[in-house]
Specification:
The protein is of the alpha/beta class. Helices cover 42% and strands 18% of the residues. The chain contains 15 helices and 17 strands. The strands form four sheets. Strands 4-12-11-10-7-5-6 form a seven-stranded mixed β-sheet, with helices on both faces. Strand 13 (332-338) and strand 14 form a beta hairpin. The longest helix is centred in the last third of the chain and has 26 residues, at 383-408. It starts with 6 loop residues before the first helix and ends with a helix. It binds pyridoxal-5'-phosphate (PLP). Pyridoxal-5'-phosphate binds at residues 108-110, 113, 141-143, 193, 197-198, 226, 228-229, 254-255.
Length: 409
Protein backbone atom coordinates (compact mmCIF):
# COMPACT_ATOMS: atom_id res chain seq x y z
CA UNK A 1 0.00 0.00 0.00
CA UNK A 2 1.44 3.41 -0.88
CA UNK A 3 1.25 6.63 1.11
CA UNK A 4 -2.03 8.42 0.67
CA UNK A 5 -3.78 5.23 -0.39
CA UNK A 6 -6.35 5.76 2.36
CA UNK A 7 -7.57 8.95 4.08
CA UNK A 8 -5.77 7.92 7.28
CA UNK A 9 -2.46 7.44 5.48
CA UNK A 10 -2.87 10.75 3.62
CA UNK A 11 -3.49 12.66 6.85
CA UNK A 12 -0.57 10.88 8.55
CA UNK A 13 1.75 11.92 5.73
CA UNK A 14 0.87 15.54 6.49
CA UNK A 15 0.53 15.62 10.27
CA UNK A 16 2.81 13.00 11.85
CA UNK A 17 6.54 13.58 12.33
CA UNK A 18 8.39 11.44 9.85
CA UNK A 19 10.20 9.12 12.27
CA UNK A 20 8.55 5.98 10.89
CA UNK A 21 7.97 4.49 7.43
CA UNK A 22 5.76 6.49 5.10
CA UNK A 23 3.70 3.57 3.84
CA UNK A 24 2.36 1.94 6.97
CA UNK A 25 -0.63 -0.37 6.88
CA UNK A 26 -3.59 0.82 8.97
CA UNK A 27 -4.97 -1.88 11.29
CA UNK A 28 -8.35 -1.46 12.93
CA UNK A 29 -8.83 -4.51 15.16
CA UNK A 30 -7.59 -7.96 15.98
CA UNK A 31 -8.06 -11.13 18.00
CA UNK A 32 -5.39 -13.57 19.10
CA UNK A 33 -2.78 -13.78 16.33
CA UNK A 34 -5.16 -12.22 13.78
CA UNK A 35 -5.16 -8.55 12.72
CA UNK A 36 -7.62 -6.84 10.36
CA UNK A 37 -6.63 -3.85 8.22
CA UNK A 38 -8.89 -1.00 7.16
CA UNK A 39 -9.56 -2.75 3.86
CA UNK A 40 -10.92 -5.74 5.74
CA UNK A 41 -8.02 -8.07 4.99
CA UNK A 42 -7.10 -10.53 7.75
CA UNK A 43 -3.42 -10.88 8.63
CA UNK A 44 -1.44 -13.38 10.72
CA UNK A 45 0.64 -11.47 13.27
CA UNK A 46 3.99 -13.17 13.93
CA UNK A 47 5.60 -10.05 15.33
CA UNK A 48 3.16 -9.05 18.13
CA UNK A 49 3.82 -5.34 17.78
CA UNK A 50 7.53 -5.99 18.44
CA UNK A 51 7.15 -8.71 21.09
CA UNK A 52 4.40 -6.86 22.97
CA UNK A 53 0.98 -8.50 22.49
CA UNK A 54 2.05 -11.90 23.79
CA UNK A 55 -1.50 -12.85 24.82
CA UNK A 56 -2.74 -11.92 21.35
CA UNK A 57 -4.81 -8.92 20.34
CA UNK A 58 -7.84 -7.87 22.38
CA UNK A 59 -7.42 -10.55 25.02
CA UNK A 60 -10.75 -10.61 26.92
CA UNK A 61 -9.20 -10.78 30.41
CA UNK A 62 -6.88 -7.85 29.69
CA UNK A 63 -9.70 -5.86 28.04
CA UNK A 64 -11.91 -6.49 31.06
CA UNK A 65 -9.17 -5.46 33.50
CA UNK A 66 -8.59 -2.20 31.60
CA UNK A 67 -12.32 -1.45 31.31
CA UNK A 68 -13.02 -2.28 34.93
CA UNK A 69 -10.14 -0.22 36.33
CA UNK A 70 -10.86 2.72 34.00
CA UNK A 71 -14.37 2.96 35.42
CA UNK A 72 -12.99 3.17 38.99
CA UNK A 73 -9.84 5.28 38.83
CA UNK A 74 -7.38 6.15 36.06
CA UNK A 75 -4.83 8.38 37.75
CA UNK A 76 -3.87 9.79 41.14
CA UNK A 77 -0.11 10.59 40.72
CA UNK A 78 2.54 9.07 42.95
CA UNK A 79 1.57 11.36 45.81
CA UNK A 80 -0.92 8.56 46.52
CA UNK A 81 -1.02 4.77 46.37
CA UNK A 82 -3.30 2.60 44.25
CA UNK A 83 -3.71 -1.15 44.67
CA UNK A 84 -2.98 -2.40 41.11
CA UNK A 85 0.63 -1.12 41.23
CA UNK A 86 1.32 -2.69 44.62
CA UNK A 87 -0.26 -5.97 43.54
CA UNK A 88 1.84 -5.95 40.37
CA UNK A 89 5.05 -5.36 42.33
CA UNK A 90 4.07 -8.35 44.50
CA UNK A 91 3.48 -10.52 41.41
CA UNK A 92 6.87 -9.46 39.99
CA UNK A 93 8.58 -10.49 43.24
CA UNK A 94 6.95 -13.90 42.85
CA UNK A 95 7.76 -14.53 39.17
CA UNK A 96 11.35 -13.27 39.47
CA UNK A 97 11.80 -15.57 42.47
CA UNK A 98 13.26 -12.62 44.42
CA UNK A 99 11.74 -12.48 47.92
CA UNK A 100 13.35 -9.06 48.54
CA UNK A 101 12.37 -7.53 45.16
CA UNK A 102 11.28 -3.89 44.91
CA UNK A 103 9.89 -2.32 41.72
CA UNK A 104 9.83 1.17 40.19
CA UNK A 105 7.23 1.56 37.42
CA UNK A 106 7.72 3.55 34.22
CA UNK A 107 5.94 3.92 30.86
CA UNK A 108 8.25 2.00 28.52
CA UNK A 109 11.52 0.14 28.10
CA UNK A 110 13.78 3.16 27.69
CA UNK A 111 12.47 4.79 30.86
CA UNK A 112 12.84 1.49 32.76
CA UNK A 113 16.49 1.44 31.68
CA UNK A 114 16.90 5.12 32.60
CA UNK A 115 15.68 4.20 36.09
CA UNK A 116 18.16 1.31 36.24
CA UNK A 117 21.05 3.53 35.11
CA UNK A 118 20.20 6.23 37.68
CA UNK A 119 19.84 3.57 40.39
CA UNK A 120 23.25 2.10 39.48
CA UNK A 121 24.82 5.58 39.57
CA UNK A 122 23.50 6.25 43.08
CA UNK A 123 24.66 2.81 44.18
CA UNK A 124 28.08 3.47 42.62
CA UNK A 125 28.50 7.02 43.86
CA UNK A 126 28.00 5.88 47.44
CA UNK A 127 31.26 3.95 46.97
CA UNK A 128 33.21 6.55 44.94
CA UNK A 129 32.10 9.91 43.48
CA UNK A 130 33.21 8.91 39.96
CA UNK A 131 31.73 5.39 39.98
CA UNK A 132 29.15 6.10 37.25
CA UNK A 133 30.37 4.21 34.18
CA UNK A 134 28.22 1.58 32.42
CA UNK A 135 29.56 -1.36 30.40
CA UNK A 136 27.35 -2.56 27.54
CA UNK A 137 27.60 -4.91 24.56
CA UNK A 138 28.09 -4.05 20.91
CA UNK A 139 24.88 -4.70 19.00
CA UNK A 140 22.77 -4.20 22.13
CA UNK A 141 19.63 -2.09 22.25
CA UNK A 142 18.35 -0.29 25.33
CA UNK A 143 16.17 2.55 24.04
CA UNK A 144 16.22 5.95 22.33
CA UNK A 145 16.41 8.46 25.20
CA UNK A 146 19.83 10.12 25.42
CA UNK A 147 21.26 7.84 28.13
CA UNK A 148 19.80 4.63 26.70
CA UNK A 149 20.81 5.67 23.18
CA UNK A 150 24.38 5.92 24.41
CA UNK A 151 24.05 2.49 26.06
CA UNK A 152 22.77 1.10 22.76
CA UNK A 153 25.76 -0.53 21.06
CA UNK A 154 24.93 0.68 17.56
CA UNK A 155 27.26 3.67 16.88
CA UNK A 156 25.42 4.70 13.71
CA UNK A 157 22.43 5.63 15.90
CA UNK A 158 24.67 7.92 18.03
CA UNK A 159 26.15 9.94 15.18
CA UNK A 160 23.24 12.31 14.44
CA UNK A 161 22.95 13.22 18.15
CA UNK A 162 26.61 13.42 19.14
CA UNK A 163 28.17 14.47 21.41
CA UNK A 164 26.71 12.11 24.01
CA UNK A 165 27.64 12.10 27.70
CA UNK A 166 30.50 9.59 27.39
CA UNK A 167 29.76 7.32 30.35
CA UNK A 168 29.50 4.03 28.44
CA UNK A 169 32.17 1.42 27.64
CA UNK A 170 31.16 -1.07 24.95
CA UNK A 171 32.61 -4.57 24.47
CA UNK A 172 32.01 -7.23 21.81
CA UNK A 173 28.92 -9.27 22.61
CA UNK A 174 30.80 -12.59 22.55
CA UNK A 175 34.09 -11.69 24.24
CA UNK A 176 34.17 -12.79 27.90
CA UNK A 177 37.78 -11.61 28.41
CA UNK A 178 36.89 -8.15 27.09
CA UNK A 179 33.95 -8.02 29.52
CA UNK A 180 36.25 -8.86 32.45
CA UNK A 181 38.76 -6.23 31.32
CA UNK A 182 36.15 -3.49 30.80
CA UNK A 183 34.69 -3.64 34.32
CA UNK A 184 36.73 -1.68 36.86
CA UNK A 185 36.51 0.34 40.09
CA UNK A 186 34.59 3.17 38.35
CA UNK A 187 32.00 0.84 36.78
CA UNK A 188 28.54 1.40 38.27
CA UNK A 189 26.76 -1.23 36.17
CA UNK A 190 26.98 -3.77 33.40
CA UNK A 191 23.85 -3.50 31.26
CA UNK A 192 23.17 -6.43 28.90
CA UNK A 193 20.46 -8.37 27.15
CA UNK A 194 20.49 -12.18 27.33
CA UNK A 195 19.38 -12.36 23.71
CA UNK A 196 19.94 -9.21 21.66
CA UNK A 197 16.51 -8.65 20.15
CA UNK A 198 16.93 -5.55 17.98
CA UNK A 199 20.55 -6.61 17.42
CA UNK A 200 19.31 -9.51 15.27
CA UNK A 201 18.09 -12.13 17.77
CA UNK A 202 21.68 -12.83 18.87
CA UNK A 203 22.05 -14.94 22.03
CA UNK A 204 24.83 -13.59 24.27
CA UNK A 205 27.19 -16.45 25.21
CA UNK A 206 26.82 -17.70 28.80
CA UNK A 207 30.57 -17.13 29.41
CA UNK A 208 30.06 -13.40 28.79
CA UNK A 209 27.14 -13.27 31.23
CA UNK A 210 29.13 -15.22 33.83
CA UNK A 211 32.14 -12.94 33.34
CA UNK A 212 29.86 -9.93 33.82
CA UNK A 213 28.41 -11.37 37.05
CA UNK A 214 31.87 -12.13 38.44
CA UNK A 215 33.31 -8.73 37.47
CA UNK A 216 30.34 -6.91 39.02
CA UNK A 217 30.82 -8.85 42.27
CA UNK A 218 34.54 -8.03 42.31
CA UNK A 219 34.06 -4.31 41.68
CA UNK A 220 30.82 -3.54 43.55
CA UNK A 221 28.93 -2.87 40.31
CA UNK A 222 25.34 -3.89 39.56
CA UNK A 223 24.46 -6.42 36.88
CA UNK A 224 21.42 -5.05 35.06
CA UNK A 225 19.71 -7.40 32.62
CA UNK A 226 17.46 -5.71 30.08
CA UNK A 227 14.51 -8.12 29.79
CA UNK A 228 12.33 -5.60 27.95
CA UNK A 229 12.07 -7.94 24.95
CA UNK A 230 12.98 -11.34 26.44
CA UNK A 231 10.85 -11.14 29.61
CA UNK A 232 7.30 -12.21 30.52
CA UNK A 233 7.54 -15.65 28.92
CA UNK A 234 8.85 -14.64 25.49
CA UNK A 235 11.83 -16.99 25.71
CA UNK A 236 10.26 -19.92 27.60
CA UNK A 237 10.69 -19.05 31.29
CA UNK A 238 9.28 -15.90 32.88
CA UNK A 239 12.66 -14.28 32.28
CA UNK A 240 15.63 -15.16 30.10
CA UNK A 241 18.07 -14.79 33.02
CA UNK A 242 16.37 -17.78 34.64
CA UNK A 243 17.24 -19.89 31.59
CA UNK A 244 20.78 -18.51 31.34
CA UNK A 245 21.34 -19.40 35.02
CA UNK A 246 22.76 -16.03 36.10
CA UNK A 247 21.28 -13.86 38.83
CA UNK A 248 21.17 -10.13 37.98
CA UNK A 249 20.79 -7.38 40.60
CA UNK A 250 18.28 -5.50 38.47
CA UNK A 251 16.04 -6.37 35.53
CA UNK A 252 14.08 -4.02 33.32
CA UNK A 253 10.75 -4.88 31.72
CA UNK A 254 8.26 -3.30 29.33
CA UNK A 255 6.95 -4.59 25.99
CA UNK A 256 4.84 -7.67 26.89
CA UNK A 257 4.23 -6.63 30.51
CA UNK A 258 1.00 -4.78 29.65
CA UNK A 259 0.13 -6.71 26.46
CA UNK A 260 0.15 -3.35 24.66
CA UNK A 261 -0.63 -0.96 27.50
CA UNK A 262 2.38 1.36 27.95
CA UNK A 263 4.15 0.14 31.09
CA UNK A 264 7.76 -0.46 32.06
CA UNK A 265 9.35 -1.69 35.27
CA UNK A 266 12.73 -1.64 36.94
CA UNK A 267 12.87 -4.56 39.39
CA UNK A 268 15.78 -4.86 41.83
CA UNK A 269 16.82 -7.22 44.61
CA UNK A 270 19.31 -7.08 47.48
CA UNK A 271 21.15 -3.81 48.12
CA UNK A 272 20.06 -2.50 44.70
CA UNK A 273 16.42 -2.70 45.82
CA UNK A 274 17.11 -0.32 48.71
CA UNK A 275 19.17 2.21 46.75
CA UNK A 276 16.50 4.74 45.80
CA UNK A 277 15.12 6.85 48.61
CA UNK A 278 12.39 9.50 48.67
CA UNK A 279 12.94 12.11 45.96
CA UNK A 280 15.63 10.19 44.07
CA UNK A 281 13.47 9.31 41.08
CA UNK A 282 9.89 9.86 39.96
CA UNK A 283 7.55 9.92 36.98
CA UNK A 284 3.99 11.23 36.83
CA UNK A 285 2.37 8.25 35.12
CA UNK A 286 4.50 5.46 36.67
CA UNK A 287 2.39 2.80 38.37
CA UNK A 288 -0.76 4.04 36.68
CA UNK A 289 -3.63 1.84 37.93
CA UNK A 290 -4.99 1.04 34.44
CA UNK A 291 -1.69 -0.10 32.96
CA UNK A 292 -0.91 -2.01 36.16
CA UNK A 293 -4.34 -3.67 36.10
CA UNK A 294 -3.60 -4.82 32.54
CA UNK A 295 -0.21 -6.20 33.62
CA UNK A 296 -1.77 -8.04 36.58
CA UNK A 297 -4.20 -9.66 34.13
CA UNK A 298 -1.31 -10.61 31.83
CA UNK A 299 0.54 -12.43 34.61
CA UNK A 300 -2.65 -14.11 35.85
CA UNK A 301 -3.62 -15.35 32.36
CA UNK A 302 -0.12 -16.73 31.69
CA UNK A 303 -0.39 -18.70 34.94
CA UNK A 304 -4.07 -19.68 34.64
CA UNK A 305 -3.73 -20.92 31.04
CA UNK A 306 -0.28 -22.47 31.56
CA UNK A 307 0.95 -20.41 28.63
CA UNK A 308 4.65 -20.99 29.25
CA UNK A 309 4.11 -24.71 28.59
CA UNK A 310 1.80 -24.04 25.63
CA UNK A 311 4.30 -21.61 24.11
CA UNK A 312 7.15 -24.10 24.53
CA UNK A 313 5.23 -26.64 22.42
CA UNK A 314 4.38 -24.11 19.71
CA UNK A 315 7.97 -22.79 19.73
CA UNK A 316 9.30 -26.32 19.16
CA UNK A 317 6.81 -26.80 16.31
CA UNK A 318 7.88 -23.48 14.76
CA UNK A 319 11.57 -24.30 15.08
CA UNK A 320 11.07 -27.78 13.54
CA UNK A 321 9.16 -26.26 10.64
CA UNK A 322 11.77 -23.60 10.00
CA UNK A 323 14.66 -26.06 10.31
CA UNK A 324 12.99 -28.27 7.71
CA UNK A 325 12.78 -25.21 5.44
CA UNK A 326 16.43 -24.39 6.07
CA UNK A 327 17.38 -27.89 4.90
CA UNK A 328 15.89 -27.31 1.45
CA UNK A 329 15.48 -23.56 0.87
CA UNK A 330 18.18 -21.70 -1.05
CA UNK A 331 17.36 -18.58 0.99
CA UNK A 332 16.96 -19.84 4.58
CA UNK A 333 20.20 -20.88 6.24
CA UNK A 334 19.21 -21.67 9.81
CA UNK A 335 17.21 -20.76 12.89
CA UNK A 336 18.35 -19.12 16.14
CA UNK A 337 16.84 -17.57 19.23
CA UNK A 338 15.04 -19.09 22.20
CA UNK A 339 11.37 -19.91 22.71
CA UNK A 340 9.09 -17.48 20.90
CA UNK A 341 11.90 -15.06 19.98
CA UNK A 342 13.15 -16.50 16.72
CA UNK A 343 15.70 -15.33 14.17
CA UNK A 344 15.49 -16.90 10.73
CA UNK A 345 19.05 -16.76 9.36
CA UNK A 346 19.28 -16.06 5.65
CA UNK A 347 21.97 -16.97 3.10
CA UNK A 348 22.08 -13.43 1.71
CA UNK A 349 21.05 -9.91 2.81
CA UNK A 350 17.47 -10.45 1.61
CA UNK A 351 15.57 -10.03 4.88
CA UNK A 352 13.75 -6.89 3.67
CA UNK A 353 12.56 -8.68 0.49
CA UNK A 354 11.53 -11.72 2.53
CA UNK A 355 9.59 -9.52 4.97
CA UNK A 356 7.79 -7.95 1.99
CA UNK A 357 7.12 -11.36 0.41
CA UNK A 358 5.61 -12.48 3.75
CA UNK A 359 3.44 -9.35 3.78
CA UNK A 360 2.28 -10.18 0.26
CA UNK A 361 0.95 -13.37 1.91
CA UNK A 362 -0.60 -11.40 4.82
CA UNK A 363 1.98 -12.60 7.35
CA UNK A 364 3.65 -10.02 9.60
CA UNK A 365 7.33 -10.60 10.38
CA UNK A 366 10.26 -8.20 10.69
CA UNK A 367 13.63 -7.85 8.93
CA UNK A 368 15.64 -7.18 12.10
CA UNK A 369 19.00 -7.32 10.28
CA UNK A 370 19.97 -7.47 6.61
CA UNK A 371 20.17 -11.26 6.80
CA UNK A 372 17.83 -12.10 9.71
CA UNK A 373 14.03 -12.24 9.77
CA UNK A 374 12.58 -11.92 13.28
CA UNK A 375 9.49 -13.85 14.41
CA UNK A 376 7.79 -13.15 17.74
CA UNK A 377 4.40 -14.86 17.62
CA UNK A 378 1.96 -14.54 20.50
CA UNK A 379 2.33 -17.13 23.28
CA UNK A 380 -1.29 -18.11 22.55
CA UNK A 381 -0.58 -18.97 18.90
CA UNK A 382 -2.31 -22.17 17.74
CA UNK A 383 -0.72 -25.18 16.03
CA UNK A 384 -2.67 -24.36 12.85
CA UNK A 385 -1.39 -20.79 12.85
CA UNK A 386 2.20 -22.01 13.20
CA UNK A 387 1.68 -24.33 10.21
CA UNK A 388 0.16 -21.49 8.18
CA UNK A 389 3.06 -19.16 9.00
CA UNK A 390 5.70 -21.76 8.10
CA UNK A 391 3.92 -22.44 4.80
CA UNK A 392 3.75 -18.70 4.04
CA UNK A 393 7.45 -18.26 4.86
CA UNK A 394 8.27 -21.22 2.58
CA UNK A 395 6.35 -19.61 -0.30
CA UNK A 396 7.85 -16.20 0.42
CA UNK A 397 11.36 -17.66 0.46
CA UNK A 398 10.72 -19.32 -2.91
CA UNK A 399 9.49 -16.01 -4.35
CA UNK A 400 12.62 -14.25 -3.06
CA UNK A 401 14.85 -17.01 -4.48
CA UNK A 402 13.08 -16.76 -7.87
CA UNK A 403 13.59 -12.98 -7.93
CA UNK A 404 17.28 -13.42 -7.15
CA UNK A 405 17.67 -15.96 -9.98
CA UNK A 406 15.92 -13.57 -12.41
CA UNK A 407 18.31 -10.79 -11.44
CA UNK A 408 21.33 -13.04 -12.05
CA UNK A 409 20.17 -13.86 -15.59
C1 LIG B 1 12.26 -2.29 22.77
C2 LIG B 1 13.43 -2.34 23.69
C3 LIG B 1 13.78 -1.26 24.51
C4 LIG B 1 13.08 0.09 24.42
O1 LIG B 1 11.77 0.02 24.82
P1 LIG B 1 10.78 1.24 24.49
O2 LIG B 1 9.51 0.82 25.13
O3 LIG B 1 10.70 1.35 23.00
O4 LIG B 1 11.37 2.46 25.09
C5 LIG B 1 14.80 -1.42 25.41
N1 LIG B 1 15.48 -2.59 25.51
C6 LIG B 1 15.18 -3.63 24.73
C7 LIG B 1 15.94 -4.90 24.89
C8 LIG B 1 14.16 -3.55 23.78
O5 LIG B 1 13.89 -4.60 23.00
Amino acid sequence: MTAGATPTAALAAKRMMRTYADDRIVFTHGSGAALVDENGRMWLDFLCGLAVTSLGHAHPAVAEAIADQSRRLVHTSNLFLTTPAVELAERLARVTGWPDARTFFTQCGATANEAAIKLARLHGKRQHPDKVRVVTLAGGFHGRTLATLEATGQPEKHVPFAPLAGFVDTVEYDDAAAMTAAVGPLTAAVLVEIIQGEGGVRPVPTEVLEAARLACDQHGALLVVDEVQTGIGRCGEWFAFQQAGIEPDVITLAKALGNGMPIGACVARGAAADTFGPGDHATTFGGNPVTCAAANAVIDVIERDDLLAHAAERAAQLRDGLEALAATSPVIAGVRGVGMLVGVELDAPVAASLEQACRDRLLITNAVAADVLRLAPPLVVTADEVDLAVAAIAEAAEAVADDATCEER
